[in-house]
Design a protein that fits this description.
The protein is mostly beta strands. The chain is built from 1 helix and 18 strands. Strands 2, 3, 4, 5, 6, 7, 8, 9 and 10 form a 9-stranded antiparallel β-sheet that branches. A 5-stranded antiparallel β-sheet has the order 11-12-13-14-16, with no helix packed on it.
Length: about 220
């Protein structure tokens, strides 16, 4: 049976978790992505099991409780408005995420074996670089790239492209290889309709969620 690679808006999850892909559902071995749609004061408990996780506000913010620590996520109004802080959650953890206002919270995951202590990174410490030029210009928010933060397998970055480059958009990326030392998955949000696509080759897999809205 052919694997489903395209999920139209509203079919990648449910009302409370509009994007919900683990490695098994996506059809590969390592990376996953969830987006939690949360109301003010709402809490969700997530058990990481064999996956490590980055908790990143796409909009809104709140708190992350894990082990004996509480991290406050200042978050942001939306993905085009600011870089966000985030929290790293290791394997074999139970984490409680509480929204302090209506929020979309991304959970980027990768299968992992090495356990790293939970940590928090403020937005001011996120490394930003600009690549390309003209309509090919893109801003890379390296919040969990391989050379910036410690993780076992997970690599996650945001890529923002300007208006005029097939619409303004942002990608939250974590891509996996068939034998990774660090892995990564991709979420794209454009300035509406939503599509989720997945592609795989012998060496890499990629998960992309794209939302568009009228400019």
């Amino acid at each position: 049976m052919a694997r489903q690679l395209f999920y139209p808006a509203g079919t990648g999850g449910d009302d409370t978790t509009p994007v919900d892909f683990d490695a098994r559902r996506a059809g590969w071995s390592y990376s996953g992505l969830k987006v939690l749609d949360m109301q003010a004061g709402e809490s969700r408990v997530v058990v990481t099991g064999t996956t490590e996780m980055a908790v990143l506000p796409l909009s809104g913010g709140g708190s992350v409780e894990v082990e004996d620590q509480v991290f406050t996520l200042a978050g942001r109004t939306g993905v085009f408005d600011a870089v966000s802080d985030f929290a790293y959650i290791p394997i074999d953890s139970e984490v409680r995420i509480t929204a302090d206002r209506p929020s979309e919270i991304a959970l980027c995951t990768a299968e992992a074996t090495r356990r790293i202590d939970p940590y928090y990174v403020p937005a001011t410490d996120i490394a930003i670089e600009v690549r390309g030029g003209g309509v090919g210009t893109r801003q890379i928010n390296n919040f969990l790239s391989a050379d910036v933060r410690d993780a076992d397998k997970l690599i996650a970055v945001e890529v923002i492209t300007p208006e005029g480059s097939r619409g303004r958009r942002i990608r939250l990326t974590s891509t996996t290889s068939s034998a990774p030392t660090r892995s990564s998955s991709r979420r794209s949000t454009t300035s509406g309709s939503t599509e989720t696509t997945a592609s795989a080759s012998s060496t890499a897999t990629r998960l992309t969620m794209r939302s568009t809205k009228p400019c």
